[in-house]
Amino acid sequence: MRKLIIFALVGFGAQLVDGAMGMGYGVTSTSLLLLAGLTPVVASASVHLAELGTNIASALTHWKLGNVDWRLVARLGVPGAVGAFAGATFLSKLSTEASAPVMAAILLALGAYILIRFAVRPPRVADARVSPHGKKLLAPLGLFGGFVDATGGGGWGPVTTTTLVSAGKTSPRTVVGSVDTSEFLVTASASLGFLIGLGTAGINFAFVGALLVGGLLAAPLAAWLVSRLPATILGVAVGGLVIVTGLRTLTKSVEVVAANAGTLRTVALVAWAAAVVWAVIRHRRDRRAAPTTLNVRRVDGIPTTVPDAVGAGER
């Protein structure tokens, strides 16, 4: 019963992160499930099965709010589903010993990407509600994002959302809504791949249910959170969490000497704390500057500073 409560809390927290940033459910929950002792393949399979429910809830919400570009959903989600099935099949074929360092390395890379992306150069903001991107970008982006998502236990959002938002051609709310909606195709395809590769062996559906319940309970609160907590600070916090947990799994799986592993984790913690402090300082600085020199707008939780002299048509 204690484990079920812990997994429900993991699902709750991961969904709050995902709802605020349009990413993070998979990488956050998978990282914490690995710390709880699940094998990489079972952790990823459990997360994807639970995500089927949270994806539907999220997609319906975004659709009702008018945040979905169905053309973007199709062009991104279909190749994403193909990549996710290939990634799930690949991970299912690896032994536990081989899959642990692979997943830990992917999580480390995703965590570093999220942290650096939000700490150094927060995504730009555009106003277009229909994405101008074509198949040349979306097909390979979806294929890669789906493969990373299945093998890393998450990554669809960090790969696709940050790429499309940082391109500065589509409104963040449209990107987040469309990516979250297309994620159902990715999640369903990955889940099918895991069930074919693993069957139901090793998958504890009680754990899956606990993750799902926690995520569903968090979904209504995510809209409130996105309006209260700056995505830049949240992104840095989540990126650091994924790095620290991924580093712990990696050092254990490759049998790093305990002293060296402790040093690496200490360095990572110090760097994470420094990045969070820097994000908070920059956010407070931008808020102080807003009344005299800048207009600070929040679009889907992303604080954006725009000079007063720039008109709405030029943004």
Automatic annotation (TrEMBL):
InterPro entries: TM_pro_TauE-like (IPR002781), TSUP/Inactive_protease-like (IPR051598). It comes from the Bacteria. The keyword Protein transport does not apply. It is a multi-pass membrane protein. It is found in: Cell membrane; Membrane. The chain crosses the membrane at residues 29-51, 72-92, 98-116, 137-156, 192-219, 231-250, 262-281. Pfam families: TauE. Its main location: membrane. One of its GO terms (cellular component) is plasma membrane. Keywords: Cell membrane, Membrane, Transmembrane, Transmembrane helix. Belongs to the 4-toluene sulfonate uptake permease (TSUP) (TC 2.A.102) family. PANTHER family: MEMBRANE TRANSPORTER PROTEIN MJ0441-RELATED, MEMBRANE TRANSPORTER PROTEIN YTNM-RELATED. This is Probable membrane transporter protein.
